[in-house]
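Comment thread on ticket #2218

A.B. wrote:
> Attaching the input chain for the structure job we discussed in standup.
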Amino acid sequence: MYGFRLGLFLLITTVVTAEVQLQPLNAAVLRGSKARFNCSTTQPPSVMTWMVNGRLVVTILQASEVFNSTDRYSATNFTTPGNYRWEIVISNVQRDDAGEVTCQVLGGAARMATLSVQERGSVEIVGGNQTKTEGAQTEFQCRAVGWFPEPNVSWSVNGVAYSCNTSSVAQGNLFNSSCTLAVTAVKNSSVQCLVKIPALSTPDSNTVFLTVEKLAKRDQTVLIAVTVAFSAAALLFLIIYGIVFFCKRRKKKSSYQEELRRAQIQSQNRTPATENVRGWDNRGYIGDGHDGHANGGVWYTNHSNKHQAPDGFFHDGRRNHRHMTIV
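C.D. wrote:
> Ran it. Output below, let me know if you need it in another format.
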């Protein structure tokens, strides 16, 4: 141990100017994954040290010997001619690893990078799939639970991106976020909620489906069918009513004409009978005088003479006599 310290002291006292580069300068990884940093120099490093948040975790001597503090930290040599490069790997990254990662080469300036350790939570669209009528308004709510840092939540409908106002609540050292999407049901669509943090190369997502039923058009078709049916029924009723009315009118007119014709026939039939009733004028009739008298309310006439019509008075040659009987 004493020899190691002595050798390190001697190497430090021998200063050689070297250009040092550290990549990446910012790294974001998920907790439990691996973080990788590369430190390169233009001169063969006699001593290279790595520190995480001020803790010495790896030491490399004469580009060959590697001393690490724990098994979670390791270094690999990727040196090529003219480029002396070492990669440090931090396995099973934990939240306390977040912070500064420093590469120091003897004879060169220290280079620092930033490590962010993030948490992946869950993504859920509340309510799942939905079925709506065409033109109806509907809402989808996305919940992102257990994320760090605060996630970015967005929507995609049939591949078209939609932003939304995300509300987040801290729970311990994690965030629960929610975002609501309001859409109009126009056609069948896939609705996707996307949750993104820097440690993810692609967003986590959850997808549901919106099914649009064209009930309005079916209702309109039924309405048209019902309207047509009622219109046809009304038209049929009017036609039947018109036919019945015409028939009754025609029958009434026919009855009137029949009555008129019957009346004419009866009138014609009555004319000869009237003439027969009238008979022939009795030209031989001589009216009685007023020489009667009343007795006890009975009128008496005193005629002893009998009148008769002269011969040849009647057309048929018959002689008719009219006799008066006094009672």
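A.B. wrote:
> Thanks. Noting for the ticket: DSSP finds two helices and 21 strands in the chain.
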